[in-house]
Amino acid sequence: MNTFYQMWGVTTPADAMAKIEEQKFEAVAKMKADGVEEPRNLEEQAQILIGKDIYEKLIKGYTEKQWGRKCTELPAFIIKRLPVRLVFDNNYFNDIYNLDIVEPGTPLPTVKNYKPALGNGEEHAATFIYCDVRQPIELEKVDITPDDVIFNFAAVHRTPGHPDPAYFETNIRGAENVCAFAERHGIRKIVFTSSIAPYGAAEELKEETTLPMPNTPYGISKLVAEKIHQTWQAGGEGRQLTIVRPGVVFGRGENGNFTRLYWGIRGHKFMYPGRKDTIKACIYVKELVRFMLYRLEHHDSGVELYNCCYEPAYTIEHIVESMKRVTNMKVKVPFMPGWLIMTAAGIAGALGSPMGICPARSEKVADLYEYLRKKTVRFGLPFPLYL
Questions:
Q1: Of 85, 100, 200, 359, whose Cβ has the fewest other Cβ atoms within 10 Å?
Q2: Would you say 208 and 311 are in contact if contact means Cβ atoms under 8 Å apart?
C-alpha cells in the first residue's frame, strides 16, 4: 500500500484495487485486439497483474537489466510469483521467523525477498529467520536440540564480482559463527557446501585427495572455511561433518550460470570462448540435495569430503547442444579464438570492464575443469537425472 499511495495517492485497499483493475482492463483489451487471450510474455503478464504504471516505473527497467533481455522477450511465468499485498506492512514474510543472509556492502538482505521456484499449488515448507552470519548467531524463541542438523550454504561466491575482503568476511567469519552456534547448542551434525574453487584452475583430474591450491579470494576463503568446520568436528566426540564440493549447480529458478547461458544462446550473445571441449563439472540441484541426505543417513561420525558432479563431466558443447535440443532452439553458436577473447578482454579491462568483461572472467571461462565423483560411485548412489 505504501507503493500504491506514492504512485496514485490512494489510501485504501479498495481504491488501490480499483486502479489496478482499471489498468488491467486496458491491458486485456489490448491483448484481445491482438487476437490473444493469455499473456504471451512478461510485459503482458505484469500489466495484468499490477497495472501499467507500476510495471513501467518499478518492474520494467530492473527486470530488463537483470535478465539482459526485453520484457517482451521473457516468458510470462517469471512474474507470476510476484505477490500483490494490499497492506501498509512492508514485511514480506508472514512467518514468525525470517532468515536472511546479508552480503557485505548490501543495504538490504540479499535474500529477504527471495521467491522460491515453486509450481502451481506448491507451498514453501521453510521458515525464514533473519540472520547475518558475519555476526554471532543468536536465535531467540527457537527450540534448538542437539539432534538438529545444520546445512551451511551461506557464502559470497560469484568470482569475480565482489571486493576481495567480502569473500573472507562472509565465508570465513560465517564458518566461525556457524560452528560456534553448533558448539553452543551441542549440535553434532553439519553439512557444509564448499566449492570446486579450492582446487584452483588447472586441467588435471581432481579427486578428493588432490592437494588444494586455490588462486582466487573465493577459493581461498572456502578452503579456510572447510578447515574451520573440521576443527569444530575434531573438538567433540560423535560429531559428524559432511563437506561437499559441488560443480556448477543448476535447476529450476536458479537464475545462475545455466540460466544465463540459456538466454545467451537464445539471444545470439553466447559463443564458444576459445574451445568447445571446456569441461563444466555440474550437478542438478535435486541430485545434490539427494546425495547430502544420503550421506547424513549413512555417516556416523568423523569428516567426509566429496566432489559432487556428474561423471564423466560434460563439456560446454554438450551442455549447449542439450539446451538447444530440449528447447528446440535452432541457433548456431559461433566460435571465438582464445587469443582474440583475451585481447578484447584486456582492452575492456583498461576501459573499466564495461558489462562485466574483464581478463579474469574471460580467462576463467576458457579454463578446463574436471572433477571426479569417485566416492559417490563407490557408495553405489546413481544420479538418475542428467543432461
A1: 85
A2: no
